[in-house]
Design brief:
Length: 93
């Protein structure tokens, strides 16, 4: 899940390109309320991409990966959060 200035989106796909000490990441997004698509791009700490890749490969089962992009403060944050009482369907993590 990605929050862009307080508005929540599902991340459908992401791609990353290293740039010197940072990484440029592009997210393809879907609005969970309307189904509309969009994209967002940010220059981030490479540790975000490492953590996102690890999560995508299934190393964090039972956890949600949350990303916040705040364009007003030029800030990107992320967190893994345990999902209590939620059971994923078979084959989904």
């Amino acid at each position: 899940m990605l929050s862009l200035d307080g508005r929540g989106f599902y991340v459908i796909h992401y791609s990353a390109i290293p740039e010197n000490e940072f990484t440029r990441i592009r997210f393809d997004l879907a609005d969970p309320n309307t189904g509309e698509g969009g994209s967002a791009e940010a220059v981030v700490d490479p540790r975000l991409v490492e953590a996102l890749n690890s999560h995508s490969q299934g190393h964090d089962k039972g956890r949600a990966f949350l990303i916040w992009i705040d364009t007003l403060n030029n800030e990107v944050r992320w967190q893994l959060r345990k999902i209590d009482g939620f059971k994923f369907p078979p084959g989904v993590s």
